[in-house]
Amino acid sequence: MPGFCYLFLELPGFYYDSEKNRYFRLLPGHNNYNPLTKESIQYKAMECKRLRLLEEEEKQKKKTTRAGLNSSMLLQKRQLGLLSSTSYCRLVHELKVNCMQRRKIEIHSPDSSVAGTNNFKIIVADVACERIFTVNDVEHGGCKYGIINLSGLGKESLTVEMYDNLYFTNRKVNSVCWASLTHPDSHVLYPFKKSKISIQLPQVCIMLHRTTNFQEDISSSCVSWELQKRQAVPVCFQHHCSAALTQASQGPAGDRPGMLCSFKISTAWSCAWCLNPQADNCFSTGLTRRVLVTNVVTGHRQTFGTSSDVLAQQFATQTPMLYNGCRSGEIFSIDVRQRNRKGQSWKAIRLFHDSAVTSVRLLEAEHYLMAADMAGKIKLWDLRTAKCVKQYKGHHNEYAILPLHVNEEEGLLTAVGQDCYTRIWSLQDAHLLRTIPSPHPSSKDAIPSVVFSSRLGGSRGVPGLLMAVKQDLYHFSYN
């Protein structure tokens, strides 16, 4: 009958096989153990979909999701004056994103035991996209840190150099951000909370990263040494670096290579570094029901009490404002210049999601804020009117703290879902441009971590998406 369709319902004790177009009974096996569960059936369906998408991407170039959009048409409209320079560049990037092809990157390291031994968990690029700070899971539990030099991406062989830090912790790292204490991106800030193995208090560490030639930044080392001498903050140094670093370090801190400046605090969920001159050398940590703003030089701390855990943070650059996303779904801002007062009067802007907020990102003009939550919703908020002006659909999340990646110059928004798919949207109209399946089977410990830039490797770098998943690194290039 025209217009008639079957409605397949979930029946207790049965599952529906779409290929065979019939229901099957879920029968228990020996000892009442049934290997066929609803979760295993869903996983099998997801894996079949992933493999099908991977096969389709390898067979043919990805076509644009916008009808009639091609390079010749864009060029013609640009020459006729029908497209502004901004719109032309944005649409060209859309075309390039849809044509990106995946290529595996070979990771080189001075230490052959470094590359390919631990699973990537987090990768974060510096502002220039010349270096990547990595957090890797260690086989026996905990995390390990390293620096990847992206200059090798410009070569035909697509290789990068990875330098491993011998320091590792048995505690879980929640978030990572670059910090500019002595010069841009001179340090790395990362909070981690207490694990089942450790009995120590959670800490926030400002780590002196190692540069690509294994030379320690001496001025940064001296700053950390001065912090210890002043006893302005509770500082402890840990010495876990290679012999090459020991020989390279000089000066009063020369006997403390690769030192860590640690601030003992309560359970930390998020962190952010302030680049505004009015709150210089300050960082914030999102804690359980409070926000802690610390000046790393003077040790001065300011606490703001909240009614919920703070899972996401970002400082504004034009004003000394700190934006916070909470487990309750609330987003609020704090002017860090003011003194802490009792009550809620210090909250300048308040926005609300229906689920826990996992990421907040300010756009360049700082009139708009992008936020994602654990219901998979991504919203663009106008801070002047406190209203949601756009929603970016398709993101998948249930309980994970997943970041957003905003690239305003290219007009793109990138996010990795809990289903391990990487999705790219147009910032302007929230159109979903590309859905990239993971090269590895979906699992909780295989959610990709990505970096997107038109200049991977610096000002003369190559454009594209960098994806770290399991022990592998992939580059999706603009071919």
UniProtKB/TrEMBL annotation:
InterPro entries: CUL4-DDB1_E3_ligase_receptor, WD40/YVTN_repeat-like_dom_sf, WD40_repeat_dom_sf, WD40_rpt. It comes from the Eukaryota. It holds the Pfam family Beta-prop_DCAF4. GO terms for cellular component: Cul4-RING E3 ubiquitin ligase complex. SUPFAM superfamilies: WD40 repeat-like (SSF50978). The keyword Protease does not apply. Gene3D superfamilies: YVTN repeat-like/Quinoprotein amine dehydrogenase. Keywords: Repeat, WD repeat. WD repeats lie at residues 353-391. This is DDB1- and CUL4-associated factor 4. It comes from Mycteria americana.
